[in-house]
Amino acid sequence: MYDLIIIRYGEIGLKGDNINDFINQLVANIKRATSDLGDFEITTIFGRIFLKAEAAKINAICQRLINVPGIISLSPAQKFNYSSKKVSEFDQSDFNRLKKQVVRLFRAEVQNYPTTFKVETTRADKSFPIKSPALSRELGAEILRQVEGPETELKVDVHQPEHLLEVEIRRGKIYIFVRREAGPGGLPVKSSGKALLLLSGGIDSPVAGWLGLKRGLSLEAVYFNSPPYTSERAKQKVIDLTKILSRYGGEIKLQIPYFTAIQQAILKKCPRRYTVTIMRRMMIRIANQLAAQNESLALVTGENLGQVASQTLEGLRSSDQVAKFPVLRPLITMDKNEIIKLAKKIASYQISIRPHEDCCTIFVPQNPVTQPKLATVEYAEEELAIEELVKEAIAKMEIITINEGAC
Ligand code: ATP
Ligand code: MG
Q1: pLDDT band at 359 (very low <50, low <70, confident <90, very high)
Q2: Are residues 231 and 339 in the same domain?
């Protein structure tokens, strides 16, 4: 039924001189997200991207595109082919054919009655001879005439219609569509550079990673693994979460350093109440090295203010003190239920709630310090052979490259 998809981007439009870089990145991401479905013709006309495809593939392509950051909405659409060469020469016979096409599309898309609708026209090309309100009115009247019947009770509702049939006239072309599907919004992946996500098996860090992707980051990830205290199943969870993120962000290199020796050393040599604080700092130290190796420019965590004992300003500061890159914490002010809502939306939630042992939960003391003092932390760390421990964790690191093909 459809022969193209109209893709709308939001914020990219505000980027001034760089706008073409952003659009080119988005087009590249769209191509990659759909590459296994075919090689489609993509054109960009100010404010819109058009993807041409055969009707049978349109739905599958839309399902991919609703996950591509940078896309604010999209509509499967039909192009109207009129007999005259120019929009300005649009005549009565063209109009009759347009009416027929609009009615056909409406009938095909609208199945459940009674219902309400509205026709809305955007006339970006002012050479088109009929003004928008008049065109909308006439097409709406035609739909009522042709579609309304005892079994298809239909009313116009200009305020909150259940179906909005849109007609867009731009650059000598007319497009009609009845659906707008929401994309994630934000910026195209890779347009803001690369960052290293500290990815646990929990609910929070995958959501933090997704929010980073949505702000145009591309991601690599690190999961600190502590076998045998943590199981293969816990690791598989993180691999599955990385797959979810990869749907939105393309290839992700998941790095799994060997963290067991570090945790054992901390447990043996540091004051019990400080183990979590010091463990966090060791994670950051390893992350520093990985980010530098992979040319990432920031770290991303799922930390949130006040959610657990280590997530106080003092705790965050003690981590930041050893960080060599900015630590982005997209969830910092969010409530848990807001985070869960997002986790459900991006489909990570069901994986995150699988039972597993986290390397942190095993080593969490009864009464962890909530306001670690930097001097005390540094003093407590003096017993650790920090450099060697970091080196060993990275030397025994496993690397898995995941690409679920989203973009
Ligand atoms: P999450 O739900 O993401 O596990 P959390 O609420 O359990 O977070 P913490 O356990 O304090 O909070 O972890 C805070 C952040 O530290 C996590 O969001 C994640 O970014 C990072 N982190 C914790 N454990 C690990 C791990 N084993 N590997 C990688 N990153 C981790
Ligand atoms: Mg956790």
Answers
A1: low
A2: yes
Q: 302 among the known binding-site residues? A: yes
User: Is residue 191 helix, strand or coil?
Assistant: coil
Ligand 1 site residues, Cβ closer than 6 angstroms: 198-200, 202-205, 222-224, 301-303, 307-308, 310-311, 359-360
Choose which residue among 197, 200, 229 to substitute to test ligand 1 binding: the one with the highest number of ligand atoms within 8 A of its C-beta. 200
Which residue from 198, 236, 288, 369 has its CB within 8 A of the most atoms of ligand 1, so it is best to mutate?
198
Helices (H), 148-197: none
Asked if the model's pLDDT at residue 406 lies above 50, the reply is no
Average pLDDT, the chain: 93
With bands split at pLDDT 50, 70 and 90, how would you rate the model's confidence at 45? Answer: confident
Do 205 and 151 sit in the same domain of this protein? Answer: no
**CATH for 297:** 3.40.50.620
Same domain, 306 and 379: yes
Q: Give yes or no: residues 164 and 236 share one domain.
A: no
Indicate the number of domains in the chain: 2
Tokens of 329: 């914490």
Q: What is the pTM of this model?
A: 0.91
